[in-house]
Please model this.
Amino acid sequence: MSAVREGMTMVLKRMLVLALLLLLSAPVLSAADKDLAAALASGAAKLAADNKPEKAKEMCFKALANDENCAEALFELGKLYEKEGNNIAAAEFLVRASREFAKEEAAKPAFGAKRAEAEGRIRRLNPYATKYAALMTDYAQELGTITRKSTDAFTMEEAGDRVASLNLADIVAPDKLPQISKPAPPKTPEKTTARRPSDDDDMPARLRPRREAPLNVPVDVEKALKAAGWEKFTGSWKKVKDNVYEVTDGKLETAKTNGAVQVIAQKGSGTVRVLVRNGHNNSSISSFYTYGSGYGFSFEGASAKMFTPYNWSGTIYRPWMEREVPVSGDKCMLLITVMDGNLEMMVNGKREHKSNYKINKEGPFVIEVEGTMTIEAPMAKGQ
Model:
């Protein structure tokens, strides 16, 4: 047991060092960064031609860490994911590559042919993608025309609902979205009558008051969790031994933007979610994408769903479920580090994602347990 404890201590120390290094490395984009990114992308193209896709992808992400809009790196990633059959990721990178090629096409004529190739690949992956984006842009502009003519609260609320329900902010450029004024909130009555529990059952789900899980956190557990960096607690927590807890419908939160969060989850019948920047309005499932409320993992059974940055318009990112990472063994160690746009995600010591995008800085770090699960060493570090 002492050998296991020493091994875990070494792993935690390694994680803390990694998080500290990430916190101290905030990139500043310069001409040299762009040149280095282009050189790395060229190297990635050679590796891809030599049938070394994993090394090529790693070099592409290094290029994007220096310049997140490097057209060549985006283009190579799109082709690599297309070859793997990951059409969703391929389309994302190719759309962004096409846009970046177009920006520099006048200064670099060779980009014209690459832009045409990227657009051709996009049409093969999803022939309706370009048409869909154009239609949504036209629709958003029509909403803008309506809201400029009719500024009453009812029209504004209806337009806002349509923008939200269609996720137009993820598809349409910000300057094409309608400018919607928020109506003044209704006055809250001074006295309210307590509602019987049975009344809630007759209300629509979106209007029901939110009910927190019963709080049961022993004093020694709360003290240990605060020392590990957590500020808010919900649910039922039972200490199994030092730094190991059996949790039922529990949640940990801390108002951090940059840093690291990690936990070791034992396999069970519930779900453990580990997320950073957990400030997106909600999670949703469409016919093509599964979105999340933050960036990180949802561990359940023998796999961990991985939520990484995704955009369509090139301006607004949101978490989407990129893929499921298989997990072997009885435990799953999840680590996420984030510094500004630098995001790195690891499962059982293996890096599964690394990127550098202009992602939102809203929302806390979160570990959430649904059902009953046993977790170890829940930690949050940063600021």
In short: The longest strand covers residues 244-254. Confidence is low (pLDDT under 50) at residues 19-28, 191-196, 198-211. The domain at 33-125 is CATH 1.25.40.10 (Serine Threonine Protein Phosphatase 5, Tetratricopeptide repeat).
